[in-house]
Amino acid sequence: MGNSIRIFLWVNFLVLLWFTYSSWIQDYSYTENESVPSFTQESPTLQEEAPPSLEANFGEVIPSLAAPSGDIFSNDYIEIKTDVLDLLIDLNGGDLVRSDLLFYPVNKDDPDNLIRLLDPSPENRWVYQTGFRGIDQNIPEPNHLSSYTSSNTAYELLPGEDELVVTLFWQNLDSDLRAYKTYTFNRGQYSFDLALHIENTSNQAWLGAPYAQQYRKHVPVSRSYTSVDSYSFKGPVFYDGDSYDKVNPEDFIDQPFREQITGGWLANIQHHFVAAIVPPDTDQVSYQGIMRDDNYLLTSISPLQEVSPGEELSYNYKFFVGPKLQAQLAEAGDSLELTVDYGMLTFLAQPLFWLLAKIHSYVNNWGWSIVILTMLIKLVFYKLTAASGRSMAKMRKIQPKMKAIQEKHKDDRQALSQAMMDIYKKEKINPVAGCLPILIQMPFFFAFYWVLIESVEIRQASFMLWITDLSVKDPFFILPIFMGIAMLLQTRLNPAPPDPIQARVMQIMPIAFTGLFAFFPSGLVLYWLTNTVLSILQQWRINKVIAAE
Question: What ranges make up the beta strands (E) of 412-520?
């Protein structure tokens, strides 16, 4: 009975891994058209703290997403370089249209080919768009289709400087409005501030709303069993102040996303990287998501603002463009670290990563950190696994008696079951004692699995010898082979199932797992190899103790 349950759990474990992988196989798809938030009847009403007359008027003209215009970026742009980012701003709109991550190459052996998140090229377009949108559409306004000017064509954060400020200017004489976009970058940071500023020099009040959005072409992930980047979700995510939701952008076709949120944010994620927009957490913001053809648009429209004649208004956003470094993400926005997509086991995965990072701060090697953390996990569950091991050892000891009973009662299943229960009682063996430790450890295994898959800190991290990147498969499949051998040795230490079919499954299991893990990140294989070796040592020791007893 105990062996049957154990076989079932192992097979179920393999099936769970397969379904986990299968769940990644979800393709998502947006137009080359850009859009400005406009005010029509098709979108949810913005909430604003204005006098009743303004609120009543505003109820008739509601912000939404108008048909875009323009498909090509201007040749007027400025370059910005910090110590971690290489950026491009298009002066036609005054927005970020390109970002290269200086310390994150696509491939470790090609350091000059950098990860590019924001991209102006039509085939991979992914850009920020920001500005103000007015109630009166006849008044020229500083939206993301307006032309801005800059005093320089290039900006760079120089050695010894901790802050870089870039200011863009817009003015329209017909509307008597002036506007600024001020970007503030800090050394070592992938988050930065954008201040939208508007001045009203006319003789009448101006009414409108600041907005920020991401426009992205849908490029479905090339799903591949051998590609680590195909393991994770790619697309839009929203945070409503309480929960974090990934959205298939194709869902926007039938049901555009529209929600009023306070203390939230929106982002686009792709495996180890993220681009996020974080409005002030005190404002109730209208979040929208739409899709047209092969492009989708994620928009946050902030509350309606009135700027009286002679007055001015500033509105601040926090942006993030870069790797999912959890400490920086947490500083940039409330729960923005949730973009490190650990899934349903985040409550376990985040503490595991915290502990892994702590270990790394001492040993300075992610491979050895994985080994040490595996040992600590094993230590935590030592008593549970020891109880399971003792049960297995006793089962192994009574194998000859079990075989004799099976032979004696092979034609009478009821008598066989009763005889087996009698021998379990006599030998003080709990046939299901091995189940609980496995069930308890399963969530930790999956949580650690997602830690190794999702944590950008482990991306392209070396271990030793031939393992130069723990986030990709072992190039020579040495670790998976060692793991398979270790699993084979582990099965030899445990009692052989009396049923021939079960015994055959146990023989095949190490081979199946070797094939399954062959293309998994080597960091995960290292974890499972270490766990298996520790289990072998523990079971060997328990077998010796039981034999002596």
Answer: none
Residues 329/330/331/332 CA torsion (nearest 10 deg):
50
Cα–Cα distance between 319 and 262 in angstroms, integer?
17
Task: Please count the CA atoms within 13 angstroms of the CA of 6 that sit on its side-chain side.
Answer: 25
Same domain, 120 and 83: yes
Q: Which domain range does residue 414 map to?
A: 2-21+350-548
Neighbours of 345 (CB within 10 A): 18
Helix, strand, coil distribution of the chain in percent, nearest 5: 40, 30, 35
Cβ atoms 179, 142 nearer than 8 A? yes
For the chain, what is the largest distance between any 2 Cα atoms, rounded to a whole number of angstroms?
104
Q: What is the DSSP letter of 343?
A: G
pTM of model > 0.85: no
Domain end (from 314, 341, 368): 341
Residue 390 sits at the vertex; the CA angle it makes with 388 and 396, to the nearest 5 degrees, is 105
Phi-psi region of 32 (alpha: psi -120 to 50; beta: other; left: phi over 0): alpha
DSSP state of 64: E
Task: Provide the residue type at 177 as one letter.
Answer: L
**224/118 Cα distance (integer angstroms):** 24
Structure-token pair, residue 3 = 């062996």
Residues 358 and 493 in one domain: yes
State the pLDDT confidence band at 222, using cuts at 50, 70 and 90: low
What is the mean pLDDT of the segment spanning 412-427? 71
Q: Are residues 194 and 70 in the same domain?
A: yes
Size of the chain, expressed as the number of residues it contains? 549
The radius of gyration of the chain from alpha carbons, rounded to an integer in Å, stands at 30
Given a cut of 70, whether residue 450 has pLDDT beyond it is yes
On whether the CB atoms of residues 88 and 80 are closer than 8 A, the answer is: yes
Q: Does 379 share its domain with 276?
A: no
Name the DSSP letter for residue 272: T
Per-residue tokens: 411: 């034609």
pLDDT band at 452 (very low <50, low <70, confident <90, very high): confident
Beta-strand relationship, 37-39 and 163-172: unpaired
**Mean pLDDT throughout 404-421?**
70
For residue 186, what is the domain's CATH number? 2.70.98.90
Residue 11 has phi, psi (to 5 degrees) of -65, -40
Taking only the tens place, the pLDDT of each residue in 273-319 is 999 999 999 999 999 999 888 899 999 999 888 999 999 999 999 99
The answer to whether residue 109 scores a pLDDT higher than 90 is: no
Sign, CA dihedral 127-130-136-138, equals negative
Least Cα distance to 169 among 152, 156, 184 occurs for 152
- Mean predicted lDDT score pLDDT of the chain: 78
Tokens of 139: 């008044």
